[in-house]
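Reminder to self: tokens first, then the designed residues, so the page reads top to bottom the way the pipeline ran.
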């Protein structure tokens, strides 16, 4: 006699199970009137969460304030996609190896297998030995991170074979001549799993967790006659050992098995297609796993007793999901859709889908006591919805999408490894952003030091050694603070600020030093060094319990040897923290986000089933890393499509809830999607009218989502033209800023009136401006004091460029061009000195003008690179350029008036120490290039340089007077053609927005 029951999806599983148990329907006469009888029973449920929920349901069903509960044990049936294997019971057999220890041991075995290869594998010889090519490197487990990945694939194969109850010896029986010759290479590699791995377990006195569970199940079966009532509920028997336990319990005198949603209404012909089908579609049916379970324990579907009746929706789903070969029955027995409580959200993109799903969850909280759960196989959807729920201050426990690597402590640990690998300004700045970083400081002191470190050091122009030489980096930072070109925020740093920044930087380097020292050593040493580094970085607080526990476990599992570098360590650590769930706090008591396994038996008033697109729900079938489809079939392993059948069963079970919201996205990651085959099945049977009604109910949530993020329609942005008060307008500009005023007045508004100046980037390299400053320093030092010889010029240049030449790349690639430019300048200078008895270098100029518009003064300043006064009393103004000088036409029309305005100042005595003089010519001296340099003389066709200079001065006076008009605004890019590149203020002026609108008109 067998005692099997099923609870249809229409009935809440755990409450129905509790009532059936208390009513004596599962085991006749049990529990009877004795209130303590339940304590003698054992109940197996798939998950810990289901066990807790059943305890609550049992107490509620009893109507008593308290109850003597049965022994409720999480069954932990292995499911490859969940990546867990919980033990059924604990006993004194050899302890089971931990998941991480198993993976690391397999990784070491894989690495050892790859290391023994002398080169790339060519073939397997007739004697079964691998033949290699010494001229090509071996690509198998060439890096530790690759060994860890292969170890994960091996672990999956071991588990898969244990699930199915198939011995590894069957691998050797596969017909080698039926497959590609390279299968023999794979088989040789798989000896790690079926020879080396068992040998290691025996040597360590450990057992594989799956093997230990098999023995535990055997003991449970043997103990069944001696035990009280035993019930297995909610399992699909995916594990062969679990299936054996289910069969034994079903036949036990005091045993009962309760299945979830076994379809009793599907006709026998269709059932046989599922249970006996040999094609790839059979395993994808929602009933495939249950059909396989019944077959394995030798129970016919007709022997199963129903605990409740299927409703109209369940009967509809039976027909909708029937095997494809039997869909011709739809013409005969087409049921009513029964989808009144189902809404379908078809969003335009993932963001809209997540917000609409969150609204559907939030809606349930308006009704007292109602509960809701989001169910999705996609962690990204789960994270998006959890984030959207925070709009309303609702924290949701997310067991479907959270990973340890995404938590605050996980990110902190990852940033520490990145900074240890490359102690660069960018890596240090990222680490400074972690709220867990303290390095032994109180929050206020740390905050001040971190700000000074970022501003004064990480954004400074550091030497070629970067942060590798801390003394040189700190010296460069101190020099940068004193630089007259430095940002005001940088120049505001005081001595004590820089001292605190340097101390923090040195403490960071010291904390990360153990990781750097362990680079290339044993993995265990790297793990221990990582743990010590995190302790030092987070002090006086701990770095986080979850990360500490992971590193402690990893250190034990790493074993001896297995040397690796920091790059490989970082990759392995990223893998581990991405696979581990964080121990997060419990969220809102009435809302949850669940994975498919957790949602399988739990009951909520509303289910939101998200991600109903192909490759998401159902997922794409994952192929085996080592065995092809035919090999799996020959071994007796289930095909990869088994996973699709499990997700189909989860979908159908959840859809049995009266209130269900389905969601999908028409695009994911910017690419169009295909609706889930489950939805297409429902659409094919329900018809267009029912689907339109479902879409109509879902449109309610879409409209709310769009309303929440909808902004009022705004006209296209127009070109900004702020009109500041007169007292805020600048009354002093340099000739170079006058050029900016002509080309882009808005930039002057942002810089001079709003006082906005962009900070230099973190870890800035050698900029054109910095290189130009060095050139100016060299030429100034050379020109001011003789003798003007080639040797002296070279000596000055060598000294000035020495910090840059410390970089081997700069010295090899750029220094030779600089030497050529120095030769060009020496020849140019010698020629000019012969004709100009007086030369003024880096001359500071200033002229105060009276504006006729309102009588206000305006100061025009300049810094002339070089002014030459010839024997005839006429002047030449020269500007050094390391970049491209402006075009002649740009200068003539007034968009590059630097030299012409310098000439105007010189004529009016604007350079102290230089007698007023007429400027006869101007030169842009280009330094560098193919010929070492080039002198570009500004010679205009229709006017002399002096005439153009006077015209530019007159136009300047008109321009300055125009800006004393209270209605005159500072327009953005009024002459866009002459703004050759983007400025630091284009984003503030929203140039891309209004420029597009103007182009369209």
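Designed residues (1001 positions):
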């Amino acid at each position: 006699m067998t005692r099997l029951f099923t609870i249809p999806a229409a009935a809440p599983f755990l409450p129905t199970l509790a009532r059936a148990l208390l009513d004596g329907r599962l085991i006749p006469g049990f529990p009877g009137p004795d209130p303590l009888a339940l304590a003698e029973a054992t109940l197996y449920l798939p998950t810990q969460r289901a066990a807790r929920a059943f305890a609550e349901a049992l107490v509620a069903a009893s109507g008593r304030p308290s109850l003597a509960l049965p022994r409720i044990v999480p069954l932990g049936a292995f499911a490859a996609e969940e990546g867990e294997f919980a033990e059924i019971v604990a006993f004194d057999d050899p302890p089971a190896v931990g998941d991480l220890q198993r993976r690391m041991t397999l990784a070491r075995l894989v690495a050892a297998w790859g290391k023994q290869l002398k080169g790339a594998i060519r073939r397997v010889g007739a004697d079964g030995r691998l033949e290699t090519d010494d001229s090509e490197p071996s690509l198998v487990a060439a890096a530790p991170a690759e060994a860890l990945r292969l170890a994960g694939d091996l672990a999956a194969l071991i588990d898969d074979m244990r699930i199915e109850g198939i011995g590894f010896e069957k691998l050797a029986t596969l017909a080698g001549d039926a497959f590609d010759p390279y299968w023999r290479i794979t088989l040789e590699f798989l000896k790690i799993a079926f020879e080396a791995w068992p040998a290691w377990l025996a040597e360590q006195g450990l057992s594989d967790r799956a093997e230990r569970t098999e023995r535990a199940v055997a003991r449970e079966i043997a103990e069944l006659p001696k035990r009280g009532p035993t019930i297995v509920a909610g399992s699909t028997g995916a594990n062969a050992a679990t299936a054996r336990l289910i069969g034994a319990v079903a036949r036990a005198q005091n045993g009962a098995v309760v299945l979830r949603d076994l379809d009793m209404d599907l006709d026998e012909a269709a059932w046989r297609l599922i249970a006996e089908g040999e094609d790839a579609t059979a395993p994808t049916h929602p009933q495939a796993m249950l059909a396989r379970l019944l077959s394995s324990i030798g129970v016919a579907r007709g022997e199963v007793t129903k605990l409740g009746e299927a409703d109209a929706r369940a009967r509809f789903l039976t027909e909708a999901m029937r095997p494809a070969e039997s869909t011709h029955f739809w013409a005969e027995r087409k049921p009513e859709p029964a989808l009144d409580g189902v809404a379908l959200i078809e969003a335009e993109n993932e963001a809209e889908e997540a917000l609409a799903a969150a609204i559907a969850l939030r809606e349930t909280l308006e009704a007292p006591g109602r509960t809701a759960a989001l169910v999705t196989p996609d962690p990204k959807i789960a994270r998006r919805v959890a984030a959207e729920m925070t709009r309303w201050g609702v924290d949701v426990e997310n067991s479907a999408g959270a990973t340890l690597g995404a938590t605050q402590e996980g990110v902190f640990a990852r940033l520490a490894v990145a900074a240890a690998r490359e102690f660069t300004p960018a890596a240090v700045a990222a680490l400074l952003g972690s709220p867990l970083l303290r390095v032994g400081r109180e929050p206020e002191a740390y905050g001040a030091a971190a700000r000074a470190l970022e501003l004064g050091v990480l954004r400074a122009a550091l030497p070629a050694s970067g942060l590798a030489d801390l003394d040189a980096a700190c010296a460069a930072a101190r020099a940068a603070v004193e630089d007259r070109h430095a940002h005001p925020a940088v120049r505001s740093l005081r001595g004590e600020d820089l001292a605190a920044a340097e101390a923090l930087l040195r403490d960071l380097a010291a904390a990360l030093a153990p990781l750097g020292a362990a680079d290339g050593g044993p993995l265990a040493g790297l793990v221990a060094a990582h743990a010590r580094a995190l302790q030092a970085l987070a002090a006086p607080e701990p770095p986080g319990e979850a990360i500490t526990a992971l590193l402690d476990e990893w250190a034990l599992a790493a074993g001896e040897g297995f040397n690796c570098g920091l790059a490989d360590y970082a990759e392995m650590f990223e893998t581990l923290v991405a696979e581990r769930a964080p121990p997060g706090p419990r969220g809102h008591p009435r809302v949850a986000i669940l994975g498919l396994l957790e949602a399988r038996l739990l009951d909520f008033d509303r289910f939101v089933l998200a991600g109903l697109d192909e490759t998401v729900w159902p997922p794409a079938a994952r192929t085996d890393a080592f065995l092809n489809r035919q090999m799996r079939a020959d071994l007796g392993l289930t095909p990869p499509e088994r996973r699709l059948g499990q997700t189909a069963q989860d979908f159908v079970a959840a859809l049995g809830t009266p209130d269900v919201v389905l969601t999908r996205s028409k695009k994911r990651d910017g690419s169009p999607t295909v609706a889930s085959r489950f939805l297409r099945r429902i659409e094919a049977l329900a018809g267009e009218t029912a689907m339109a009604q479902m879409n109509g109910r879902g449109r309610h949530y879409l409209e709310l989502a769009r309303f929440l993020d909808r902004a009022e329609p705004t006209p296209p942005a127009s070109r900004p033209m702020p009109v500041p008060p007169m007292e805020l307008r600048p009354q002093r500009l340099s000739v170079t800023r006058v050029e900016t005023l002509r080309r882009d007045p808005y930039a002057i508004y942002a810089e001079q009136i709003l006082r906005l100046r962009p900070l230099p980037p973190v870890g800035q390299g050698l900029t054109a401006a910095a290189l130009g400053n060095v050139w100016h320093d060299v030429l100034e030092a050379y020109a001011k004091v003789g003798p003007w010889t080639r040797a002296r010029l070279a000596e000055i240049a060598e000294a000035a460029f020495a910090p840059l030449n410390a970089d081997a790349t700069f010295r090899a690639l750029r220094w030779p061009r600089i030497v050529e430019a120095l030769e060009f300048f020496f020849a140019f200078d010698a020629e000019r000195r012969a004709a100009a008895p007086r030369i003024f270098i880096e001359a500071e100029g200033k002229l105060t003008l009276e504006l006729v518009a309102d009588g206000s003064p305006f100061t025009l300043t300049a810094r002339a690179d070089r002014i030459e006064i010839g024997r005839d009393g006429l002047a030449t103004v020269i500007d050094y350029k390391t970049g491209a000088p402006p075009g002649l036409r740009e200068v003539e029309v007034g968009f590059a008036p630097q030299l012409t305005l310098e000439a105007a100042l010189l004529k009016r005595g604007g350079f102290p120490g230089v007698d007023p003089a007429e400027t006869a010519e101007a030169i842009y001296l280009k330094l560098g290039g193919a010929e070492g340099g080039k002198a570009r003389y500004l010679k205009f066709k229709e006017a002399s340089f002096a005439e153009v200079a006077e015209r530019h001065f007159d136009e300047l006076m008109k321009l300055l007077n125009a800006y004393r008009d209270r209605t005159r605004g500072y327009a953005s890019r009024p002459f866009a053609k002459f703004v050759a590149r983007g400025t630091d203020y284009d984003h503030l002026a929203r140039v891309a927005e209004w420029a597009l609108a103007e182009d369209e008109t």
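The chain has 39 helices and 22 strands.
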